[in-house]
Amino acid sequence: MDTPPTAGRPVRGRPLLALGLVAALLTLAAVVWASLLFGSGDVTAGDVVRGLLDPDLSVKGQLIVREERIPRTVAGLMTGAALGLAGAVMQGVARNPLADPGILGVNAGAAVAVVFGIGVLGLTEPGHYIWFGFLGALLAAVLVYSIGSLGREGATPVKLALAGAATTAILTSLTTAMLLRDRMLFDRFRFWKVGSLSGRDPDLLLQALPFIVAGVVFAIGLGPRLNALSMGDDIARALGQRVGAARLAAAASVVVLCGAATAIAGPIGFVGLIVAHGARLITGPDYRWILPYSLLLAPILILVSDIAGRFILQPGEVQVGIVTAVLGAVPFIILVRRRKQVEL
What is the membrane topology noted in the UniProt record heading this document (predicted)? Predict the structure, then answer.
């Protein structure tokens, strides 16, 4: 059912929005090129081209492109697309402008489950990381919603944000405790824990790719349902939506996307929050456009943050999760302090 967007809000013309998507796609292509070209190590444009098409691994620049930059960039694309869509879906289904996989504890749940599986159960197969990420994301989402629903008011935006912050703090502490008890595990995962794209295992990316693709396709198809849900349950039912089924479908897409993204790059926060609001400023309230914009804008944010992190503290690097946290903290504080909640 093709549900109209929220009433009373301006809707931009489709040709202009389609042109914006093309511009976002071209920008993403430019950022991908920059991600392959810039960073530590002497890499030229020719090295990038040959590293993509027919690499000579005896040439240092082509070796860097093939072994480090390509997996890193692919990880950024996959993680960004997953977190951007997950944030937009969460904001739509919860009618909560503060919703974000990092803020509401979903990423922290996936992270603690992955670290538990590796550090305590001794898992080594990349495919196992994905399943533990799904399980952790699901349990964290259920826990946050259950806590936020306590009381007569139900799951209000502020209560969900507070429940998510408390859950994130607890789960992050558990993750840190597991890492500190094993020095080798800590050395291996200390950068992953703060969100990193460097040193990604190509096997893990291949294992996660089908889940990311499935989650993206599923989430994009939720646009009409999210339009209805954003207007309230009663209106959604009047428009013929099965509210319970729609919420379950949205939750499933968020769990798949967040679980896979966290298994790849660790718990990266604020991406969904920033991107969903940025997309809404461009498109208006129609989730049929917010979702594809989020799909493109989030990888741009992730890769730009990663590129910036390569130069901030040379010859070292600042992990992408730290950069996105700095970028996302200000908008989050502004949203929390606003007396009137943002209308979705």
Answer: Multi-pass membrane protein
